[in-house]
Target: Type-4 uracil-DNA glycosylase
Amino acid sequence: AQGERAAAIQAMDWAQLRDSVASCRACGLCDGRQRTVFGVGHEQAHWMIIGEAPGEQEDLQGEPFVGQAGKLLDNMLRALGLTRGGAEAVQQVFIANTLKCRPPRNRNPEPAELAQCLPYLQRQIELVKPRIILALGRFAVQTLLQRSEAIGRLRGQVHDYQGIPVVVSYHPAYLLRNLPDKARAWEDLCLAQAVYRRQLGE
Ligand code: URA
Model:
């Protein structure tokens, strides 16, 4: 049944995928959520940013990274000339999480929850076909790359997800508590931009 569900999700278009996430009851997180958080941005974005899971604000608003960590992420993206959309005509970024529902009291995602939610993220990546993925925090990294090392060990290199380059960095919520690592996160963004430019042949 698990394989059948994943196969069904792999065949969905955007509208079907949105509906499926909105009505998902595949794990216990559905009982505590206010809203599902599908993701936001352009459906053909060149950059895909992948975080962990909705927090309180995201759960209330239905949009990823709208709380404090999100403000930091937006600032970091803006420094690269990237925007999640809004009034701007060009939307270069799609932002999603490994989990589409908020874990109670923002506890860590559990392996079973990550496994149930992964087909949604995989399909989102397939549909967007980003030129580069920025994976923020250990859960995004574990989920995409199947690597369990600390971020500090995996950053600074270019990884691969199904032919798409993946750059790894600290989660913005972590950076809010560990300001000295902000400089490292900035290096990671610069690496990502260099990889992106190479992808475009610049
Ligand atoms: N942290 C995340 O990983 N994702 C969000 O959407 C908000 C905070």
